């Protein structure tokens, strides 16, 4: 005697990958046809020659920051670690110079916050031109 019915003996459903592969190939073909590949190369430019006049060196205010976070403005130590004292030191140096460039010379081991404080102090002092001094590798 058979106790199982036809409904319980159904085959397990199969997942057909052929339509999925077809769709992926169509998308791949579409992307490869519509994509443009441009080669970016160097432009060869022949610059004109001329006699350069000696450019006037911009006036600078040097801010040195040591590895321990001590700050010096034009070689004079800033007594406290806050931004206001550094801003005052920059303001004292700025009136003697017209539109100076602040050059921040920070040690490689300087805490990042001290460099950010120097940038903030220069901004608060109204000195918009700021640059960083780096050491050239030998």
UniProtKB/TrEMBL annotation:
Its record classes its membrane topology as: Single-pass membrane protein; Single-pass type II membrane protein
Please give the start and end residues of each transmembrane region. 12-33
Q: Which UniProt keywords apply?
A: Cell membrane, Membrane, Protein transport, Transmembrane, Transmembrane helix, Transport
Origin superkingdom: Bacteria
Q: What are the annotated GO cellular component locations?
A: plasma membrane
A GO BP entry is: protein transport
Q: Report the sequence similarity comment from the record.
A: Belongs to the ExbD/TolR family.
Q: Which PANTHER family match?
A: BIOPOLYMER TRANSPORT PROTEIN EXBD-RELATED, EXBD MEMBRANE COMPONENT OF PMF-DRIVEN MACROMOLECULE IMPORT SYSTEM
Specify the protein name. Biopolymer transporter ExbD
